[in-house]
Design goal:
The chain is mainly beta and 207 residues long. It has one helix spanning 2-21, and strands at residues 33-35, 39-41, 45-47, 49-51, 58-62, 73-75, 83-85, 91-101, 104-116, 121-123, 127-128, 133-139, 147-151, 163-164, 171-175, 181-191, 194-206.
Length: 207
Amino acid sequence: MKRRSLIGLAALLLPALTTAQTKPVPRRSDAPTLSAARTIVAGAPLSVFLSNPPQSARLAIARPDDPADKAIVVVEPRNTVPALPTPGAVGAYELRMTVEKNGAPVILLRQPFTTTEPSATLAAPERVGRGQGLPVRGIGPNGEQDRVMLVKPDAPADADGPRFFPAENVEATLEAPDQPGIYELRYILHAPLAEHRILARRAVKVE
């Protein structure tokens, strides 16, 4: 009876011992990964940190419920810390790493993030002579296509005029128009889902 009891006890303990000795499978060191900020100003560049991306990988920004073949932004990463233009509209989005299989994108990795309300500031003299240089400073989301422009106050948001791109340098000198009058300095957000959105204005008198 004693021997049978020991055998029975061993049978009960065996599953527990087997479970205790089973170690979780470690993550492969060569598996692809991505990480980025979880919150960012709408329209600002999103830096993504990558490791071991597949050769055909793409980075995409989409709405969380969008299928794999629908995206707002798609970029082919050319280094391990690429920057993606984020949507200029406030909301919830998803950063994705995709690869193409059988002619269609397949999502390998995903990370949610949200965008917050964008804003901008402008600094410049209130007056400038005709045809003279106007020193300007413009700070905002600083997306690649954002611009600071000097135009007439009633000009449409997509009007052309002396401009510079804050993503390249937040300070520049713009040439004032030859015609005197009241003009308007603008910081214009130009991002996916929000093109030609005026974030800041400042009056400038050309004399």
